[in-house]
Write a structure and sequence with these properties.
By secondary structure, the protein is of the alpha+beta class. It has a domain of 192 residues: Porin (Beta Barrel), CATH 2.40.160. Helices cover 22% and strands 46% of the residues. The protein contains 3 helices and 13 strands. An 8-stranded antiparallel barrel has the order 1-2-3-6-7-11-12-13. The longest helix has 34 residues. The chain starts with 7 loop residues before the first helix and ends with a strand.
Length: 303
Amino acid sequence: MRKPGQPVQFLCKTTQWPGRCLLLLAVLCASFSLHAQPKDVWRSLSDQQQKALKQKEKKTRQLKSRISQIREWGLEDTYKHELSLGVNLHTNGVGGHLRYITHKKGSTQDVWLLRAQSIHHEKEIKQQRKGNTFRELGAFKPYSFGKINSVLSIQLGYGKEQLLLPPVINENIAVYGSLTAGASIILQKPVYLNLIYTDGNGVNFVQSERYEAQNAEHFLNNAQILGADKWVKGLGAAKIIPGLFLEPSLIFVPAKNKSFIQRIYVGGNIAYHLQSVEIMALRKALPVQASFFVGIGFGKRWK
């Protein structure tokens, strides 16, 4: 029991103060050491991140610049000349074109057009011999039954393009009307088929022939056709038929430089030739060839 005036408990607490102070001092020193030591490390990491970020931004700018150059290549808004290549899908075949355009002041443009197109008859159907009969005579190459000539059309013309609708809506697409006319040439090449014959000894053999009145029974008989011969055969016997053509069309032109596609065409083409163009043996030959088409043109513009 504590006697009056004797501060035992107080003395005990005061005797524990030095140890507690030392412990607190050690904790503070350790904490200071932990916070002070990695400053340089954090600064180094921050510098590396900033450097990496700058490199990434630089690459992004370079990529955007290249994309912009690609989009703007050949697509100057203030151009005077244009040279473009294109493809056309016709109702009677497939073709390609080359256009040279000179842009004048105002809303009119001069157009020079060179077009090449294969012409097919609406009744043409590719087929191929089946089975193993006559397999020993050669390959069964596809052919169009009744087709007697392959036809290629080449057209060279001059025309005008008139601005119909300027790109007033967000400067997106301008619409032009075009009318082109000129010379049309038909290259009519005979088709050769490998026909099956049997000699007097009952031996089968193959002979390459074009359509003639004398071999019509063989040429127009699927059972006697082995297949088509090489396309180049008959070039020496090709026939040239001159004529004229007229082509009206609508042209949709992107006003902003957003793609390589410069022009989209929708129109018609009609040609009259001095002789009838023969394609199928059992169909009437006509001197007029007409078709509707859609096309795409892309190329280069310059001042």
